[in-house]
Amino acid sequence: PVPPPPVAPTGPAPAAGPGGYGYPGYPAQPAYPGYPGYGWPGVHPAPQNGLGVAALVLGILSCCLFCLYGVVSLVLGILAVVFGVKGRRRADRGEANNRGQAQAGFVTGVIGIVLGVAVIVLLIIGISVAVHDSDDSDPYYYDGALRPTATVLADR
Predict the structure, then answer these.
(1) What pTM was computed for the model?
(2) What is the pLDDT of residue 85?
(3) Dihedral over alpha carbons 85, 88, 93, 99 (to 10 degrees)
(4) What is the pLDDT of residues 105-149, one digit of tens each?
(5) Quick check: 150 pLDDT over 90?
(6) Do 123 and 69 touch, CB atoms closer than 8 A?
(7) Whole-angstrom Cα distance, residue 49 to residue 103?
């Protein structure tokens, strides 16, 4: 057996607390659901903002490209509306944090659809008017031939 250490001239040392030598232990932290014990809780998954961004980009493109006969605007607008609705639902569930982008993509998609339909309707009207136009613009020609004209001279 080993003898105890000698007593100091100032008296015996106070009894060590529950932490032992050095600094006291860390205070107990409240247990987070699913993360018991010490340290930082686990990393939450990153927000999935892809649908909102895609809706906004496609909606802007559908508004800008309506002049390509309206078909491009119509297709991109429909895609923007679909992605915008899905992006808003994902943001409402808490899986994404860009509900505003998804909403803006939805709105610009609807505007792109309206512009695309308007251009297509105007093209159809313009083509049908051009095909069914029977008005002669030049009175001197009739079916490609010159029209005979006569001038009546008044009393001279």
Answers:
(1) 0.60
(2) 97
(3) 170
(4) 999 999 999 999 999 999 999 999 988 876 655 555 555 555 556
(5) no
(6) yes
(7) 12
Task: Specify whether the backbone of 144 is left (phi greater than 0), alpha (psi in -120 to 50) or beta.
Answer: left
Annotate 138-153 with DSSP letters as a single string. -TTEETTEEPP---PP
**Per-residue pLDDT tens over the stretch 81-103:** 999 999 999 999 989 999 999 99
For tokens 């993360």, the residue is: 35
DSSP-assigned states of every residue in the chain: -PPPPPPBTTBPPPPP-TT-SSSPPPPPPPPBTTB-SSSPPPPPPPP--HHHHHHHHHHHHHHHSTTTTTHHHHHHHHHHHHHHHHHHHHHHTTS-S-HHHHHHHHHHHHHHHHHHHHHHHHHHHHHHHHHT----S-TTEETTEEPP---PPPP-
Tell me if 44 sits within 8 A of 32, measured CB to CB: no
